[in-house]
Design goal:
This protein is of the alpha+beta class and about 120 residues long. The protein has 3 helices and 8 strands; from the N terminus they run E-H-E-H-E-H-E-E-E-E-E. InterPro entries: DUF952.
Length: about 120
């Protein structure tokens, strides 16, 4: 099973679950796809794009359930990032965890969720 990760504000995720689908965050709408990270990328994504932000959740998605709308495309430093061209079906989500800020000021990832 191939897992990918989405970091988003808890309130936005709550809206998505109430609507039955996740259409993305404002940055996703602007770019035309939903941004995801692999396990190797997600901590750096949190540090670069969500530094100091509280009230976040980490959405764990089974990539194989997304079909051809999921593409791995070059981004930061040529690294291939997962991008979803369409809405995220909630049936592809296998876990949602809080992403608190730890004592060191960085986000604290749930143990066993993201290999570090």
């Amino acid at each position: 099973m191939s897992l990918i990760y989405k970091i988003c504000p808890r309130s936005l995720w709550q809206e998505a679950t109430a609507q039955g689908r996740f259409t993305g965050a404002p940055v996703d709408h602007a770019d035309g796809f939903i941004h995801f990270s692999t396990a190797a990328q997600v901590a750096e994504t949190a540090a670069r794009h969500f530094a100091g932000q509280g009230e976040l959740v980490l959405i764990v998605v089974e990539a194989d359930r997304l079909g051809p709308a999921l593409r791995y495309e070059a981004s930061r430093g040529g690294d291939l990032f997962p991008h979803l061209y369409g809405d995220l079906a909630l049936t592809a989500v296998i876990d949602v965890e809080d992403l608190p800020i730890g004592p060191d000021g960085r986000h604290s990832f749930p143990e066993g969720i993201v290999p570090q």
